[in-house]
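# step 3/5: fold
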Amino acid sequence: MIVRQREILVPPIQAGSDALGHFARGVEERLPVGAVPLRFAVSKSDGAGFHCEVAAIEGREEPWPRTPESIFRFKRREAENADSFTAVLLVPTGVGAEIGGHAGDAGPVAKLIAAVCDRLITHPNVVNASDINEIPANGLYVEGSVICRLLMGTVGLQPVRSNRLLVILDSHEDRDFVDAAINSVSAARASYGLNCARVVVLDPPIRLAAHYTSAGSAAGNIEGLDRVCRVLDMYRGEYDAVAISSVIDVPPSLHMEYFQSEGRMVNPWGGVEAMLTHAVSSLYDVPSAHSPMLESEDIADLEPGVVDPRMAAEAVSLTFLQCILKGLQRSPRILSGAEAVPHSGTITAADVSCLIIPEGCLGLPTLAALEQGIPVIAVRENRNLMRNNLADLPWQADKFYAAENYWEAAGVIAALKAGITPSSTRRPLQGTNVARLSLRERVSATRSPSRPQPE
């Protein structure tokens, strides 16, 4: 059983067609029989259609213990809950985002957005910075595929006080790296009270290999997912969240090339990490996160010098593990199926007040927000590899905002939270839309031609 990313072309959508249904059919028709999609994004849209990148589980021979739910399943929310203002902040992994494309360098953005809303939902890529994780006090650390399902209306989130963590480590030719990871777990237990149910050293290890797509985004292949699944099945009652640390195969020269690129090079590790956590969270309905394990002492001994500040957290860490341990400690419980029925304290699509994304990012979160009537704020300054004109989508009035930067996005959020139309704070103010319809014309239009009318 492997996880592989494929590139497919989905034809243009006909006017009036169901966008989600169109993409669901397009993906199903173009993947191998039996493949289970995990991650979907449109890297570019043009006259030929939608150039899509799809990660999927392929080649499973045994029956699924629980049939995976389609990532395109959608349940429309009945109304928006206005009791509190919940913002979802996304920076897709592996697309070379100017802000948030490296090592937790969107953390300050998360704190800014959290300051103007009641609750922030974000994903590991935004705040994971090797040994640093500064998620705001009102923030929820939620794996990317789970946020997709939340916006699609098929799962709920239940905040928790703490989770029991299962930590899965690659076996390694050099025992020092395994020991360092175990010491990281012990440090978390001693310094901030992490509840680690068990550390499992996986032998033979899972194999993650990173590569780039034709669009330049980070992706990869995963072999040995079934071994991770066996561990998760074996200890199913002992844990609430899963942390995985494993080696990611990249050419050794790529490490130094990355650190010397001054932020211009797309982080090669994040894409395949997202594929793995999408698989784990989708199959087991548990919070999950991944950190890379260094390949060798030679890689650990590299001296990249002073690097771009966005990469600095990676340049000073040995295990990269602490950020995911801290994030998963309080990651909310995932409620699906009958459990997802809203009840007190559960966060559902009805509670989502807005979605903030980099410009051009088109995937399930954007499509779900479009269908749910959730306002979307696209930030132009957060440039990335995705080439889509989001303004062309059939948005309802006042549901799509293009912000120049995150400062401006915070202002739009503040206006939405205050219940005012954001454009009312700008000048010039457009004239009021007035429709003139005479009463006589309206009465005439409603008369039935079969019944005589009194003079």
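# step 4/5: annotate
The radius of gyration is 24 Å.
# step 5/5: archive (pending)
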